[in-house]
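Class prep. Write one:
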Amino acid sequence: MADVPQWHAKGDWFDVCKCNIPCPCTFAQPPTDNTCEGILAWHISEGRFGSVDLSGLSVVGLGSFTGNLWAGAKAQMAIYIDDRASAEQQQAIQAIWGGQAGGWMAGFADLIETMRGVTTAHIDFAVADDLSSWRVEIPGVALGEAQALTGPTTAPGQRVQVHNPPGAEVGPGQIATWGVATIDRADGFGFKWDRSGKSSKHFPFDWSGPS
């Protein structure tokens, strides 16, 4: 990776998936019914790949797998890159998300057996400041919305969170905030589903590379 510049990216990630609440994958367990599919969404609040600024850009993945992803299972995915990205920004994002730039995503990329496609798209991404809700949309392709999980013993304004989850999709050291997917709809690259009421969780991420 001698030709890979120093890079850093931090921001918000969340998913909406078909697992029951809470998604077992975050606990390094097999998914509900041993299969999982869903929308993964990243937003880079601050990021740089060498001299290329990545701040403000988003990435969306559609994915599916069977078995425990942390114990040898492999996934199929498709990636959508923010259509506001320049050619240089697209190349940087592909290097990071494809694993060639090292860092946490190099290990994540090893979990992908088949990449069905990579393209650009208009992405609307939003996370409430108080983590009460999160949302992503690619018009005509994907829509994921979630509300923070609450219950009869959850104090108003408090979030249901897990520290040090053993299967954190963004890497170690981050906190999961659990939610309920109110919309989970996708139709792209052969992935297609439409459901609600299943698992969702939000994580911050903070990555650097190439080492």
